Amino acid sequence: MHAVATAAVFPGEIIGEDFPDPDVFQQNGTWYAYSTNNGRGHVPVATAASANGPWTIRGDAMPGGPSAGWAQPGRTWAPDVYPNPDGSYTLTYTAWHTSSGRQCIGVATATSPLGPFTPVGSQPLICPLDLGGAIGANTFVANDGTRYLVWKNDGNAIGQPSTLWLTRTANNGTTLVGGNSALLTSSGVIEAPDLVQRGSQFVLFFSGGGYTDCNYLTSYATAPSLSGPWTTAFRPLMTTQSFDNRICGPGGANFVGDKVFVHGWVNGSRHLYVADVGWANDYPVVRGSRVRYEAERGTLNHCVVRSNAAGASDGKVVAYIDYADSWVENTVFAQLQAVTRCMSDTRMAQAPRPATGLLSTATVKAASLTRSPAGTTGSRVPSRSL
């Protein structure tokens, strides 16, 4: 199957200066974005009337810096700002733990999304020093109203595995309730979690690879419930290559409705980009990022998946499409302007062109032309890039 688009639409650069590890939300017609510390302050904040901009840097949302009771300035990372039901705002941030030199997670509050945010308490909210400290908190509110933090223990800082954890919170996210639940663990880099609930599953986005170069990427895992089991996507969602080198190291992703905000390297700084997001069967698709659709991951009727196939994606192919009722059905996600053309050694139904919207789903089905001699593998649907 090969879907060919007439013109790729890549993410747009919306803040053309250093603005890494973004957190973004929209309220009352205004978009707010926050970033890791830089020359603009401890927690730079920007606003816009549209996700696509133009954006204006508005200053430092936490001008007093992190809590002097446990932290020192200089490494205030990955802010997460959440608008509370009572009209206040909670900022969860990562800061430099003074006594240990590690990174830990603190919390601050304000009455305006622009700040000034004032740190809460004289101790960090989360600080497992035996696990390397804690970084990258993200607020998640489930459909039932339960509020959580997703965060990472920084095992990478001490040569140990890192885990993404889920912890329930209370009091507008300023206190913790109960213990921590492990979601994903990796001996490599896994960080910048962002959790989304879809109709049939939970989707946990995360960054991987070294953040210092173009190898940084965004991937995800899915689970039917917060207790798992979690299944990591076979391929990353966004990489430098999937964007045809238009973004160097797309990471720190923040998903907001039908948008994703991501940073990428430009001349030594990480600029902010935005892209459209769609969903196919509750799996994410980012506009401009190439997608591979494997036939063996579709719906099969009277055929089988054959493993250990030399040269095949993940070593698997669909085989024995030999009968009148043999078929494979895949749901794809395409741009409005896309012209979808399917090519294989099987009979393919052309996907309909969507009439409205930037992104839309389409179903493509492959069926057998003729029966293959007994004992052969039959036809298969090749897997190719979108």
Care to describe what's here?
The chain is an all-beta fold and 386 residues long. It contains no helices and 27 strands. The strands form seven sheets. Strands 1, 18, 19, 20 and 21 form a five-stranded antiparallel beta sheet that branches. β7 (89-97) and β8 (103-110) form a beta hairpin. The radius of gyration is 23 Å and the shape is globular. The chain starts with 11 loop residues before the first strand and ends in a 19-residue tail after the last strand. The model is unreliable at 1-6, 337-358 and 369-386 (pLDDT under 50).
Summarize the structure.
The chain is mainly β.
Cα shape? globular
Please bin the fraction of helical residues: under 10%
Oligomeric state, counting identical vs distinct chains: single chain
Q: What's the end-to-end separation, in Å?
A: 9 Å
Cα-atom Rg, whole angstroms? Answer: 23 Å
| Biggest sheet layout | 5 strands, antiparallel
Number of strands: 27
The secondary-structure element order is: EEEEEEEEEEEEEEEEEEEEEEEEEEE
Secondary-structure-derived class:
mainly beta
Count, helices: 0
Q: Mean of the pLDDT scores? A: 87
* Uncertain ranges: 1-6, 337-358, 369-386
Kindly list the characteristics that best describe this protein.
single chain; 386 residues; mainly beta; 5-stranded antiparallel beta sheet; 4-stranded antiparallel beta sheet; 45% strand; disordered N terminus
Secondary-structure blueprint:
Blueprint: E1 12-15, E2 23-27, E3 30-34, E4 44-48, E5 56-60, E6 71-83, E7 89-97, E8 103-110, E9 118-119, E10 134-141, E11 147-153, E12 162-170, E13 175-186, E14 190-197, E15 202-208, E16 217-223, E17 231-232, E18 251-256, E19 259-266, E20 269-280, E21 283-286, E22 299-301, E23 304-306, E24 317-319, E25 327-335, E26 347-348, E27 359-367
Antiparallel strand pairs: 1-20, 2-3, 3-4, 4-5, 6-7, 7-8, 8-9, 10-11, 11-12, 12-13, 14-15, 15-16, 16-17, 18-19, 19-20, 20-21, 22-25, 23-24, 25-27, 26-27
